[in-house]
Amino acid sequence: MVNIETRKKSALSFVVLTVAAASSVSMIGGLGIEAVESKLLPIIPLVIALPALNTMVGDYATVIAAHAGNPVERDKTFRKLALAISKSVLVNIILMISLGTTLAIMRNYEFTVSIFIKYALFIGSSISLTVAFMFFITIAIDRLLKYKKINPDDVLIPVVTSISDVLMLGLIALATFFF
Amino acid sequence: MEAYKNHLGEIQKHPKHWAYVYEHHRRRVSLVSTKPIVLSQLFTIVASLFAGYLLDLNKESISLIAGAFILLPGIVDLEASLTGALTAKINHQTAKLKAPNWLIVSYSILFSLTVSIFASLIIGLVGGLIGYLIFSASIYKLVILSVVTTSIVALINFPLMSVFTLLVQKLRINPDNVVGPVQSSVIDIVAILAVAVVAKWLI
C-alpha cells in the first residue's frame, strides 16, 4: 500500500519532470538564436521584437489549441475564433512595426528604407505564417488524436505552444541572413 | 493547529499543476470575441517590446556566457507555466476551499518554488549539455545561470502575481482575464534582467 508521503513525492517529481521536459523543448528555439547570436545582436529591431514575438506566439497557441480541444465549443466557435484572431493579428502587426521601430531609433539604430521594409515584411509574414501554422497543426493533431482515441485536452496546448515557439524562434534566426 | 492541519490536508488533496494550467487556459478562452483578445494582446505587446528594449540594453552581458540564449526561452517558458498554474490554483482554491487565503497562497508559492528549483536544474543540465556539445559552453556556468536566474525570477514573480491575483479578485474582476497578459510581461522583464545580472556576476 503506497503511503501518503510517497504519493506526495511522486506527484512532485511528476510535475518537475513534465514541466522541465515541456520547457526544454523551447530551448530548441534558443539553440537557433545562439547559433546566429553574432548576426542577430547588431540588428536592434529584431532583438527588441524577440520577447514580444515569443510571448505573442504562446498566447495565440493557447487560445487556438484550447478551443480545438473543446468538442462542445469547437464547431460553433472556430470560425468566430479565426475571425477574432485575424483582427487581433492585424492590430499586433501594426503595433509591433510602429513601436518596435520607435524603440530601435531610441537605441540609435540607423533605419534605412530598405531595412524598414525588411523589418516590416518580416514582422507581418512571421506572425501571419505562425498563426496560420498554429491553426493547421491544431486541426491536424486534433484529428490524429481523435483517430488514436486520445483526449486532446491533455496534449494539444503544450504541443502546439512548443512547436509554434520553435517555429517563431527559427524564423527570427533565419531573418538574420536577410538583414 | 488542528484546524490548520485540516486546511493543509484539504489543499494537498487538490491537483498539483497541469489541471490548473488547463483550467487557467480554458477560462481565459471561454469567450471568443475580438475585443478581449485585442486588449490583452495590446498590453502584452507593449510590455514585451519594453522587455525587448531591456534585452537590447543588456545583450552584451548576456552574450558573455556561451549558451545563455539557449537557456533564456526555457527559463521564460518554465516560469510562465508555473506562474499560470499558481495563479489559477490560488483563484480556484480561495473560491472553493475554507482554508484561509494566506495558507493557500503560502503553500502554493512554496510548491511552485520547489518545482521551479528542481526543474531549473534539469533545464540547466540539458541546456548545458547542448551548449557544451555545440558551442563548447561551460555546463557548470549554464547550470548555475539556470538555477540562480530561475530562483530570482520565482522569488520576485510568485509573491507578486499571487498578491495581484487576490487584489483582482477583491475588485470582483475575473483574474483569468487580467492576470495572463500581466504575468507574461512581468516574467519577460524580470527574466531578462535576472539573466543579465547573473551573467555579469558569473564572469
Structure description:
The complex is a heterodimer of chains A (179) and B (203). Chain A is mainly alpha-helical. Chain A is built from six helices and no strands. Chain A has helices at residues 4-35, 37-40, 44-68, 71-106, 113-147, 156-175. In chain A, helix 3 (44-68) runs antiparallel to helix 6. Chain A is globular, with a radius of gyration of 19 Å. Chain B has 203 residues and is an all-alpha fold. The longest helix of chain B has 35 residues, at 101-135. The chains are: A mainly alpha (179), B mainly alpha (203). Chains A and B meet through helix 1, helix 3, helix 4 and helix 6 of A and helix 2, helix 3, helix 4, helix 5 and helix 7 of B.
Question: How are the elements arranged and paired?
Answer:
The complex is a heterodimer of chains A (179) and B (203).
Chain A: H1 4-35, H2 37-40, H3 44-68, H4 71-106, H5 113-147, H6 156-175
Helix pairs in contact in A: 1-6, 3-4, 3-5, 3-6, 4-5, 5-6
Chain B: H1 2-12, H2 18-28, H3 34-62, H4 68-96, H5 101-135, H6 139-170, H7 175-202
Helix pairs in contact in B: 2-4, 3-7, 4-5, 4-6, 4-7, 5-6, 6-7
Which terms would index this structure?
heterodimer; A: mainly alpha; Tetracycline Repressor, domain 2; B: 203 residues; mainly alpha; 7 helices; 86% helix
Give a short summary of the structure.
Chain A has 179 residues and is an all-alpha fold. In chain A, 85% of the residues lie in helices and 0% in strands.
Number of domains of chain B: 1
The DSSP helix count of chain A reads 6
Q: What does the radius of gyration of chain A come to?
A: 19 Å
Helix content of chain B: over 70%
- For the secondary structure, the number of strands of chain B is 0
What is the CATH architecture assignment of chain A? Orthogonal Bundle
CATH architectural label of chain B: Orthogonal Bundle
